[in-house]
């Protein structure tokens, strides 16, 4: 879906040498995700641990965004906590399934098909942003700027250090060691977790890094 007046960003892709346009790349990405989501159900997906385990940090009211929401488990949780919740994703199949799940649960939220390359969040528009299992490094400054004063970012995605086959095969879409810490330099750090491959890798929270950051007050 196009968003007139907004500048198309050039997001980093694994095809840096590729001469396809962003539009062509994103229609390929959309088709890939649509196909996956046709096989999946919202009821079988789970919210990200970084949100589930830190629900006590959420404000009682405010506007929340589940960015690149997929089937929207985080959005459902945010809306059930009473936040005025938006959920954006490139995949119309995912967004339609999320709308259906919200209706079945009697939860109000705004699920929209939105290409973040075309339409990143606008500055100062959300009190809470959740990003799970999505990594577009060029979007990180816009994500931080989209937080209102005192707003919270809950971020969790896959690391290159891995103990199983979950997540993208391409390391470009996985975090290097400690990388997440550096992607949001202007946010105050509330929580950071990354275990890598130290100790008993059969235990713990592996394959991902988590960050919770807070926007400054002014
Ligand atoms: C690995 S899934 C994660 C979904 C969800 N956040 C979760 O944790 O289950 C990555 C999502 O990013 C979405 N996505 C990829 N590129 C996008 C873009 N340019 N704009 C919006 N969404 C995009 C895909 O459609 C897909 O749903």
Question: How would you sum up this structure, described in words?
Answer:
By secondary structure, this protein is an alpha/beta fold. It has one domain: Vaccinia Virus protein VP39 (Rossmann fold). Helix content is about 25%, strand content about 20%. The chain has six helices and seven strands; from the N terminus they run H-H-E-H-E-H-E-E-H-E-H-E-E. It has helices at about 20-40, 50, 75-80, 90-105, 140-145, 180-185, and strands spanning about 65, 85-90, 110-115, 125-130, 145-160, 190-195, 210-215. The protein has a seven-stranded mixed β-sheet. Mean pLDDT is about 90; it is low at about 1-10 and about 10-20. The chain binds S-adenosylmethionine. S-adenosylmethionine binds near residues 26 and 115.
**Number of beta-strand segments:** 7
DSSP strand content = 15-25%
Instruction: Compute the number of structural domains.
Output: 1
**Bound ligands, each once:** S-adenosylmethionine
Span between N and C termini?
33 Å
CATH fold naming: Rossmann fold
CATH 4th-level superfamily: Vaccinia Virus protein VP39
- What structural class do the secondary elements suggest? alpha/beta
Give the name of the CATH architecture. Answer: 3-Layer(aba) Sandwich
Note the run of SSEs as H and E: HHEHEHEEHEHEE
Shape: globular
Helical content band: 10-25%
Mean pLDDT: 91
- Count up the helices: 6
Largest sheet: 7 strands, mixed
* Unreliably modeled segments: 1-10, 12-20
Write a concise keyword list for the protein shown above.
alpha/beta, Rossmann fold, seven-stranded mixed β-sheet, about 25% helix
């Amino acid at each position: 879906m196009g968003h007139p007046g907004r500048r198309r960003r050039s997001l980093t892709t694994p095809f840096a040498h590729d001469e396809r346009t962003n539009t062509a790349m994103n229609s390929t990405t959309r088709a890939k995700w649509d196909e996956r989501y046709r096989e999946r159900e919202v009821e079988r997906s789970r919210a990200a641990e970084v949100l589930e385990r830190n629900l006590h940090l959420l404000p009682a009211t405010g506007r929340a965004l589940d960015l690149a929401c997929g089937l929207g488990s985080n959005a459902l949780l945010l809306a059930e906590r009473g936040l005025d919740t938006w959920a954006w994703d490139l995949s119309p199949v995912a967004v339609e399934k999320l709308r259906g799940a919200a209706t079945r649960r009697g939860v109000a939220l705004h699920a929209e098909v939105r290409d973040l390359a075309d339409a990143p969040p606008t500055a100062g528009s959300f009190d809470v942003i959740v990003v799970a299992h999505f990594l577009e490094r060029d979007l990180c400054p816009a994500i931080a700027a989209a937080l209102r004063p005192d707003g919270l970012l809950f971020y969790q995605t896959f690391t290159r250090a891995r103990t199983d086959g979950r997540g993208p095969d391409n390391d470009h879409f996985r975090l290097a060691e400690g990388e997440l810490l550096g992607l949001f330099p202007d946010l105050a750090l509330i929580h950071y977790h990354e275990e890598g491959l130290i100790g008993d890798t059969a235990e713990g929270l592996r394959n991902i890094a988590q960050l919770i950051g807070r926007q400054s007050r002014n």
